[in-house]
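Please go through the protein record below and see whether the fold suits the sequence. Record follows.
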Amino acid sequence: MNATVLLTSVDINIPGYRILSPIGEGGMASVFLAVQESLDREVALKVMSPVLAANTEFASRFLTEGKITAKLQHPNLVTVYDIGSHAGVYYLAAEYIPGGTLKERISQGGLSVAHILDIATDIAQGLDFAHEKGFVHRDVKPGNVLFRKDGRVVLADFGIAKAMDGSNSSTVAGSSIGTPDYMSPEQARGEPVDGRSDLYSLGTVLYEMLTGTPPYQAGDPFTVALMHVTHPVPALPEPYEWLQPLVSGLMAKDAAQRYNTGAAFVDALHKLVEAAPQGAVLQETSARKAGGGGRIAAGAATQQRTRISARQSSGRPAWLWPAAGVGVFGAAVLAWWLLTPATAPPSQSQPQGPAAQPTAATPATETLPESFQMPQPVDTANQDEVDRLLNAGDKLYEYATQVEVGRKLDYPDDDSALGYYRRVLAIDPENARARAGVASVVAFYRSYAHKACDRGEWVQCGFLVRKGLAVDGEDPYLRQLQDAVATAESGGTPALPAAPPSS
């Protein structure tokens, strides 16, 4: 629903506020520039979507936790002035910050590395304060980062994100909490989250500021969410490789391997800047999106660099550095061992050359049945390739089901369990081991989709059902779950099939 439609379809004559103009909209709310008449000050008035407001649990949590969030006073967090409801319309009034969003700055392109690191620092400091107070944002993204006149940034929408995380949040308006481009793996799996989930999202924002695009891209949000779970941390391009430890420390798939706090990230950032290559901090990003505008002035970049250089480091615990080094090295060795396709052992039998074949001068003396077919000579090279592919597929299937759930199961096509099984079937369509492997991938999605549906996590269930149907579009069990998801998202009471048998 866009702001114009909301203005005409819902009574938003909220006492004490005079709406001037719409300034933004999203799937969950519309934002208006308004005047708080009692103080004659401009505010950003966020009016929640009527679909969300109709959910009684959401409405109650929105009001209760919004009032608590209004107590969060920090230079890098938007100040909330008022929250309430009138005539069924739920609203939040916050300070109006007219400097635009980080999303717009990224689209324009040309942010200097110094400016990017200051932005990341400001976001991390705001998150650190909120996390200490017990709040988790759940939707850190460029569109929620606003610029003050002095160039510092503030994070918006803490209360709304917190209020939406009720037990039924995954079914509200058919959406899960968070935005797929910036969603942590635990969010994508529908699991409970803490402040480290916000830090993962900060890592995705940092990556996008440097490269111009989010870390994972696909044709639909379900696939993007899965990529956060299954894909490795993306590598930065060569000019920014020295910043890779920051991105890796924020975007580790296991929350326990991320920076524990925003303060720990800021401390690591300053240490990295002190050891940065000559001129690296002054570098400007060259990534631009279509339609991007002008670059930030060099003077502003220099001013931001001064902020980076002048800040004091608080000293990150020394034990974390060797532990992280051992962990990364061990993970690399394990990944190499698990993910390298196995080479089939040399064949024990020697291939038969033409000299070993019966000669044409020895005709058969017996009459063979008409249905008899001469055995075809074995193509040893093909058989070796089939064995290699099957070994690789089996190893990746084991990895995807026992080590990192979902990773390397069916993506990418050329290096996943499903990909290897399908390559075998292209060579030998009747290969029983490859057929069983594909069936196991489908069974994986049946099992996990049913568990999600059984917990009432319909968005997660639908996501897994779609992945399974991408493997076998006619699987009857997944079709039943697909119908259940459609029923739940339309407000009905779905009937779930029994849990699938263990594979």
About this structure: The chain is about 45% helix and 10% strand. The beta strands are 17-25, 29-36, 41-48, 80-86, 89-95, 145-147, 153-155. The first strand starts at residue 17 and ends at 25.
